[in-house]
Design a protein that fits this description.
- The protein is α/β, with parallel strands linked by helices.
- 32% of the residues lie in helices and 18% in strands.
- It is built from 16 helices and 19 strands.
- The strands form five sheets. Strands 5-4-3-6-7 form a five-stranded parallel sheet, sandwiched between helices.
- The longest helix has 15 residues, at 79-93.
- It starts with a helix and ends in a 9-residue tail after the last helix.
């Protein structure tokens, strides 16, 4: 019987089978300041050291402010303590750290691919649920808790229960003005937020092959919202071209060896998947969420659905709670709902391709009066590239705040937030209650929809501009 891509990488990293779990070798460990310093200090207090320090990378991204001129002092009262502890522990252990002010700093799941840290076939963990983003490169990447990260730091291995294999084949092609974020929300609306629970997802099909690498990252990022263990896309010519020449990618003869190996990483034709789903890309429209879960999403040109339309994936309680929190009613048109703020950023949609797409909508236009609009580039390199292309000026001229890279505006735990009960259209991945501030009502959408909505002052379809 043939093997899936996931099975192949799992087998290559299995050190020992332990009944229902396997002991897996871990190739890369990414740490951030919110939990990394705690894990490293705990390791030191127990008398243990980091095994294989060259495979560990520290990144300041979770609680750092995004304001220009930022320092260790943050909006979050204890943020400076997290930052300084992490910095000290990385220095003590000799861990490569992308600190505040380092041109390589950024959101961990943006930085790792752009630096070539993640590569096809590696196992990669980080204490962050959206680590699955990096499966877009063909890696087996998943999020762990800080205690699991500590264990992997000390031993180089981790006990993991093997998930089921799930394939999502996306056929056809996305329509004009429809983005991969719309596809991700469409899949969530079809399968529900538990649709990938207990599964390692492989995305495939002609629509996936047509996606550029950054778009693939957006899709794999949202697998966390499907409750999946992780998500992967088999490496191809686009993957190899993307990685070539990046700082931590193999060089010279090692590159040739790596490329030869990477080209073997694909599911066999006769591989058996435990679950198989097919999605028609041509059926996808620009999407927006209407509730307080990513699965509560509908086409932007539709109405808030009646309960009967979504009963297959919603309890009446969660349906009503989502409407109540968002202050919406069944049957209300989604397009035209007034907004208070617009946000472009996060590990989902903050790469240069996302900023270019938003800038194309914003150019020559102005943000509506009363709308607070913010853009947080995904990394310092993305920010510099955007500034070299004049994208920052397009955002600023339109009325967007142009910020430094970080996670803080994506989730309230970083200290930065929108006004209480503000209605925000956001390119992030989660619209949970209070996610972007106390009572903040978040509508998830693509960067293009966010930009169009900022201009209109209400949820808007960029295809109409």
């Amino acid at each position: 019987m043939g093997q899936t891509l996931f099975d192949k990488i799992w087998a290559q990293h299995s050190v020992k089978e332990l009944g229902d779990v396997s002991l897996l070798a871990i190739d890369r460990i990414l740490l951030h300041e919110r939990t990394g310093g705690v894990a490293l200090r705990s390791l030191r207090d127990s008398g243990r050291s980091v095994r294989g320090v060259e495979r560990v990378f520290g990144i300041m991204d979770h609680v750092v402010d995004t304001f220009p001129g930022r320092t260790d002092k943050t909006v979050m009262p204890t943020g400076a303590d997290f930052i300084r502890t992490f910095r000290e522990e990385c220095a003590r252990n000799g861990i490569t750290l992308f600190d505040i002010g380092d041109p390589r700093q950024g959101i961990v799941h943006v930085v790792s691919p752009e630096q070539g840290i993640v590569q096809p076939g590696v196992t990669l963990i980080a204490p962050d649920s959206h680590t699955c983003t990096q499966g877009a490169i063909g890696a087996m990447a998943w999020g762990v808790g800080s205690s699991e990260a500590e264990h992997a730091l000390a031993t180089g291995v981790l006990r993991v229960a093997k998930p089921a294999n799930m394939r999502i084949r996306v056929t056809g092609a996305l329509g004009l003005g429809v983005t991969v974020k719309d596809l991700a929300l469409h899949i969530l609306a079809e399968l529900s937020a538990g649709g990938g629970k207990g599964c390692a997802i492989e995305y495939c099909g002609e629509a996936i092959e047509a996606l550029e690498i950054e778009a693939r990252m957006t899709l794999c990022n949202m697998a966390a919202e499907l409750s999946a263990f992780n998500a992967m896309i088999a490496p191809d010519d686009k993957t190899i071209a993307y990685l070539k020449g990046r700082p931590f990618a193999p060089q010279g003869a090692l590159w040739d060896q790596a490329e030869a190996y990477w080209r073997t990483l694909k599911s066999d034709d006769d591989a058996i998947f435990d679950r198989d789903v097919t999605i028609d890309a041509s059926a996808v429209a620009p999407m927006v969420t209407w509730g307080a879960s990513p699965q509560q999403a509908s086409p932007l040109n539709a109405r808030v659905p009646a309960y009967e339309e979504v009963a297959a994936r919603e309890s009446r309680e969660s349906y009503q709670r989502g409407l109540d929190y968002m202050a919406l009613e069944s049957g209300a048109p989604l397009e035209g709902i007034k907004i208070d703020a617009a946000f472009i950023g996060s590990c989902t949609n903050s790469r240069i391709s996302d900023l270019r797409a938003a800038a194309a909508v914003l150019k020559g236009r102005k943000v509506a009066a009363g709308v607070k609009a913010i853009c947080v580039p995904g990394s310092s390199q993305v920010k510099l590239q955007a500034e070299a292309e004049g994208i920052d000026k397009v955002f600023a001229d339109a009325g967007f705040e142009w910020r430094e890279s970080g996670c803080s505006m994506c989730f309230f735990a970083g200290g930065e937030s929108f006004a209480p009960k503000a209605r925000v259209v956001s390119s992030t991945n989660r619209n949970f209650e209070n996610r972007q501030g106390p009572g903040t009502r978040t509508h998830l959408a693509s960067p293009a929809v966010v930009a169009a909505s900022a201009i209109a002052g209400a949820l808007a379809d960029p295809r109409k501009l």
